[in-house]
Amino acid sequence: MAKTSPRPGSTAATRPAPRAGKIAIVGRPNVGKSTLLNALLGEPLAITSHHPQTTRDRLCGVVRGEGVEVVLVDTPGIHGARTRLGTRMNALARGSLDACDAVLLVVELSAKPRPELDREDRAILDGIPTRVPVVLVLNKVDRVKPKELLFPVLESLARARDFAGIFPISAKRGGGVAELGRALQALAPEGEPAFEEDEITDRPLRFFASEYVREQILRATRQEVPHGVAVTVESYDESRRVPRIALVVHVDKESHKPIVLGRKGARMKEIATLARARFEELAGKQVHLEIRVKVTPGWYEDPRLLDELGYGEVAT
Ligand SMILES: Nc1nc2c(ncn2[C@@H]2O[C@H](COP(=O)(O)OP(=O)(O)O)[C@@H](O)[C@H]2O)c(=O)[nH]1
Ligand SMILES: [Mg+2]
User: Which atom from ligand 1 is nearest to the alpha carbon of 50?
Assistant: First the structure.
């Protein structure tokens, strides 16, 4: 339904129909899917890190052009699962392929790129139904020098499948991202937008509070905490002038607690400061973060906690 009356001389028939598309971003862990989502959004919404499996949830970002809405679905990477958490993450990634108008398959380039897809990339590609258009994204092109090394790669990959497009890009530096964004808009079929004009994601704000805390913990603790941590929101009190968000960081073992807290809690203080700054930028308002660290042994196998974290049940 049109919200404004047509200008004199223009009729509904001459205005292009609105278009709306849904595109899943898939690929192995660590190839740069979340970095690409942020680059396309122009907003550092999703968390990224050099650790595989940083993204655990399905997260939507909304990109708009003139008369077109593209919903990008960032997914956890598809990988060999060793825990219940891993199994649920894979199911989430695969499930995103349903009901999508196209799939962005992200692979990463090495300094000396090979002219064929690696085995795992190939397996992911083969799992995408043939009716779904696939855009192949060759990320981290900034690593490839000289660029001539790319030519035989592009030529050979073009034969791997009838891709809707092949784009060498650098999600991190921005090269090729605008062009890719335009191509994605062109893929959107006719349809009404699913989101309000000021919405950029399907997730409530509080989700990002827990994500940004988890992101800073990942960055600060590097390899020290196997399985990482889970962060849940205990309460979100908006009745105060400065809203207060109480969060619980779940660690697997008592011995992980001091790693996350640091000496006299110094590390956690730093984590909280950085997460708060990032959250405030997204929310456009001040918040207080209250963070408690709790030992929840085997949280990544705990169905109840996984449900609470939104990782859905997997039919096996
Ligand atoms: N050199 C380079 N690194 C990148 C690029 N894009 C992403 N990365 C890095 O790759 C790592 C994984 O990125 P992330 O987006 O979290 O990957 P995801 O697991 O696929 O979502 C991070 O350290 C990013 O900074 C790129 O274009 N060039
Ligand atoms: Mg990710």
Answer: 23
